[in-house]
Write a structure and sequence with these properties.
Elements (H helix, E strand, L loop, with lengths): L5 E5 L8 H29 L5 E5 L3 E8 L11 H19 L5 H23 L9 E7 L4 E2 L1 H18 L7 E5 L2 H13 L1
Amino acid sequence: MNDDPVVTAPEEPAKKHSRGRLVAMALSLAIIAYAADQLTKWWVENNMYEGQVIPVIPPVLNWYFIRNPGAAFSIGTEFTWVFSLLMAAVFIFVLFLLRKLGSLWWAVALGGLLGGVAGNLTDRLFRPPAFFHGHVVDFISVSNFAIFNIADSFIVCSMIGICLLMFVGRRVDGTKDVVAPKGAAEDASSESERG
């Protein structure tokens, strides 16, 4: 087990970006993700009938219009309201995290996540059969995989990015976890005691 203390250091590149600019970047990406999701769903609903399959790159990629009451792979179809609550909670939590932004990469990841969650949450709230029980429009069908949409793509890519940022010790506020060597930590401690 590594007993070296973990300290945080400011991220140098983020110094060039004010928190306001980072939040604006995140919200801009969220709007782009949301618009792309809702426009493609609108196109599918107005140009395809439910259950229709249009080959795009056969047999790898098709447009396949379905309405999904559940999560990925149609899991939990009888608990649509639970997914609505979870998405609303994630949406609010991401908005809260934006207040702490100090990293360009976190701005990209959180912006993509916010836009994707907003896209699917809109479906849950306002699409049939009822408020908070709406079915999500899915249409991207990759062979031997789930049928998904643009919002799902942004959510998955953003979550991968967030996991990578956490793995390398990059924090939302722009600081980075740095493991200090044992001797250096003791030197710093004795310096502060002397001062």
